[in-house]
Design goal:
Chain lengths: 220, 558
């Protein structure tokens, strides 16, 4: 990671912007029944409130004050826990959260970061996905929905074309980030409308499963 | 980009006659020449010419064209798609999220700025952020909003005078006004988005001074033969582009969109009136005077929403009307009687042709559900909505074109996908943008043609299809811009490039010309946006790397 230490304030503002965006993305849906999933949902919700201002949405930090947490195979659960509890001194200091959060909250954060840090393309389970994202039946359902709804006008056949980066062969799009973007939409030079009210959570995860599948194909 | 044809050189009838330094306008009382210093309405004149009679900037002087000012609205979402309006030295335009600006047309200084409080639901619409302009008249600036209202602002101050809610985004799949409502005397009228949505399109009219609704025109005809069962309730048919008002015949001309679901017509067997139709409407009552349906039972997304160009044919007024299908319909302005139909698109395979006498589709190839079909032109049309221009000096119509096709598998909409207000009712299982058959590269053009016959005078080829509207002037010039942000002035007679400027982001709006204190200006909106470039990236991967932007640039001679 390279960091320019002279502009942390600007970055903080930028990442606060991200924080506001990500902060609105915590799920309003009923709490998941599965305890592991509930813990991850809690971890994500806390991460979105406390951590995104430095690490970016979904820990995808790029030019943020803190480092990216994605694609970090060297981060062991023990190291993640230690860093959250004790923080870090020096350049790009991180506050210690051990005195602020209770044990279950820290457990949830560790569990969530543990999923985030895995390379996006190999993630077949996102923190909150209710099924295995590598399930061929789910991928096929997502493919059909994508071809009907997302390809025309916007993302192109098999996610190639469109103003968004091609989904085929794309390795930097984590499942949670994909879910959140579909759910809430996004606005930049182009606009993607929110689809959270259109599709069930399950349907959106099927789209995510298809996007992850496309990410594993060669870009040709 | 290269000049591919230069067939014959016609004499310049009038363009150079007043090109001296004194008079800056070719003064004439003919239609299209009134009010030469202003750009008073969307197409400048009711005949939709996009022609400026000003001549100070001409073939000889255009090489000295320099930036006079740049006005940046600050938000680049979906670029800058408006055609500015200019009246008495003040320029009015609209940028992302319905921000309206009054700008000193000589200096680019902001005189007032209006930002409406939009209903948050507008953020959920597929057609978010963009608007194609405002209308100025009766001391007011009229806006069609992203949350389904017509608003009138005080022309001097930008303060709201009235606001009338017309469409309901919740129940009408985000139907909103992306085009400026137009004036027909004291009636203000306009239609919404929704051609690709499961709605029944409407044209709304209000009293321009009070905002009180006066009539609503139902685009979907109440007719079992045209729309079996309740298929019309989801039949699309929105009039999403500005119409024009012809004071001479006291008639509104406005075109309607394709029928929905776009590519799946199984549940709407019938001609699906009044989709893909040019309407002639009485502005006082909202009653139909006549109509010409160009594409009966459309299943290709072939809107009839583009400008109704009015020119003379054998001494009488005819409407020249480009349909997305790649055909131009020429009809009598008085009753819509067909005078000619000519093919504008080079690649056209959805039918064998259209009978120029009757308008009948010859062997139309309607996509069979479940079967992959290669159809040309693609769903954006032989041209997007970026308007052409007509120059009475050359007698030529200048219009961009795109040669791109789509591979479509027709299929019913998935009801689950139709829950969001952003939902599209495309009636497809799959769609893919592809080059024309015989492995030709997709490309774009600027054509100079006889509007009545389609005879090609000259044509310029571009690697990426330009999405800017065209401006032509009595100075013998044609102005436009490409998707990469190059702005051009061409010789109206032969297409020779006379001037170029790199604006940095692509052109998607409408260039205009006007004069202030004896000085002629050209104002060109720049900033690439709208869904079209996104969709076209499927066939033109280089579009992905094109930057967005939003800058209105005023040019004048040094």
């Amino acid at each position: 990671m390279t960091h320019n230490v002279h502009l942390p304030f600007r970055r903080l503002i930028l990442s606060l912007g991200l924080c506001l965006w990500a902060g609105t993305s915590s799920f309003a849906a009923a709490p998941p029944a599965d305890p592991a999933r509930a813990q991850l949902a809690d971890g994500k919700s806390r991460f979105d409130k406390l951590c995104v201002s430095c690490h970016g949405a979904d820990g995808a930090g790029k030019d943020t004050y803190g480092p990216s947490l994605q694609n970090r195979p060297e981060l062991s659960p023990a190291l993640i826990r230690e860093r959250i509890v004790k923080g870090k001194h020096g350049d790009h200091a991180m506050p210690p959260w051990g005195t602020v959060l209770d044990r279950p909250a820290i457990d949830a954060l560790v569990a969530y970061v543990e999923v985030l840090r895995q390379p996006a393309a190999t993630q077949t389970a996102a923190p909150l996905s209710p099924f295995d994202l590598a399930d061929p039946a789910r991928i096929e359902k997502g493919r059909k929905r994508f071809a009907k709804t997302c390809a025309g006008y916007c993302h192109g056949h098999e996610g190639v074309g469109g103003r968004a980066p091609d989904f085929k062969g794309r390795t930097d799009l984590g499942p949670q980030q994909a879910f959140d973007t579909i759910y809430h939409g996004r606005t930049g030079a182009d606009v993607m409308p929110p689809w959270g009210a259109a599709f069930s959570e399950e349907s959106i995860w099927e789209l995510v499963a298809y996007l992850q599948f496309l990410g594993r194909q060669s870009a040709d | 980009m290269n000049l591919i044809t230069s067939l014959r050189l016609a004499p310049l009838a009038l363009a150079l006659s007043c090109a001296g330094t004194g008079a800056i306008a070719a003064g004439d009382a003919k239609p299209g020449f009134d009010d030469p210093n202003n750009w008073p309405q969307y197409h400048r004149s009711a005949n939709a010419w996009r022609f400026s009679p000003l001549t100070q900037i001409n073939k000889d002087t255009v090489k000295r064209l320099k930036v006079a000012w740049v006005h940046q609205p600050g938000n680049i979402t979906h670029g800058l798609q408006a055609t500015p309006i200019v009246l008495d030295g003040v320029l009015y335009y609209i940028s992302a999220n319905n921000n309206v600006w009054a700008v000193d047309a000589a200096t680019g200084k902001t005189l007032w700025h209006y930002e409406p409080k939009l209903d948050p639901i507008s953020k959920q619409s597929f057609y978010a952020a963009a608007s194609r302009g405002v209308t100025v008249g009766r001391g007011k600036v009229f806006v069609g909003t992203l949350d389904g209202r017509f608003i009138a602002l005080d022309q001097k101050t930008g303060k709201e005078v009235w606001s009338t809610q017309l469409s309901d985004l919740k129940t009408q799949y985000g139907a909103l006004f992306s085009a400026p409502p137009q004036l027909a005397g004291d009636v203000l009228f306009g239609g919404t988005t929704g051609g690709d949505q499961p709605i029944a399109g409407k044209i709304y009219a209000v009293n321009a001074d009070t905002g009180k609704p006066v009539w609503t025109f139902e685009v979907i005809k109440d007719d079992e033969e045209s729309w079996p069962g309740d298929s019309g309730k989801r039949g699309g048919g929105s009039a999403w582009m500005p119409g024009t008002y012809d004071a001479q015949s006291d008639t509104i001309y406005i075109g309607t969109s394709n029928a929905a679901p776009d590519f799946y017509g199984v549940d709407r067997k019938g001609d699906n009136k009044y989709t893909a139709t040019l309407l002639a409407i009485d502005p006082k009552t909202g009653k139909l005077k006549w109509h010409r349906q160009e594409i009966p039972h459309d299943v290709w997304d072939f809107d009839s929403a583009y400008e109704a160009l009015v020119v003379k044919k054998d001494g009488k007024d005819v409407i020249v009307h480009l349909n997305k299908s790649g055909f131009v319909f020429v009809m009598d302005k008085a009753d819509g009687k067909l005078e000619n139909v000519w093919q504008f698109a080079e690649n056209m395979n959805w039918a064998k042709g259209i009978d120029p006498k009757t308008g009948a589709l010859i062997e139309p190839r309607r996509p069979e559900p479940g079967k992959r079909e290669l159809l040309c032109p693609n769903l954006l049309g032989a041209r997007s909505w970026n308007h052409g221009a007509y120059n009475p000096g050359t007698g030529l119509w200048y219009s961009h074109a795109m040669e791109v096709c789509n591979e479509v598998v027709s299929g019913p909409d998935d009801p689950e996908s139709l829950k969001a207000i952003s939902a599209l009712s495309l009636g497809i299982d799959e769609i893919k943008l592809v080059p024309p058959p015989n492995s030709k590269d997709p490309y774009g053009r600027l054509d100079a043609r006889d509007p009545l016959t389609g005879e090609l005078k000259w044509s310029i080829r571009y690697d990426l299809p330009p999405l800017s509207s065209v401006l032509t002037t009595a100075g013998g010039l044609v102005f436009t811009g490409d998707m990469e942000g190059h702005l051009f002035a061409y010789d109206a007679d032969n297409g020779k490039q006379l001037w170029q400027f790199n604006a940095g982001s692509g052109a998607r709006g409408g260039p205009v010309s006007y004069a202030v204190n004896g000085k002629q200006y050209i104002a060109i909106p720049t900033g690439l946006g709208s869904h079209a470039p996104g969709f076209l990236a499927g066939a033109f991967p280089q579009i992905k790397d094109l930057p967005g932007g939003a800058a209105l640039i005023g040019f004048t001679l040094d």
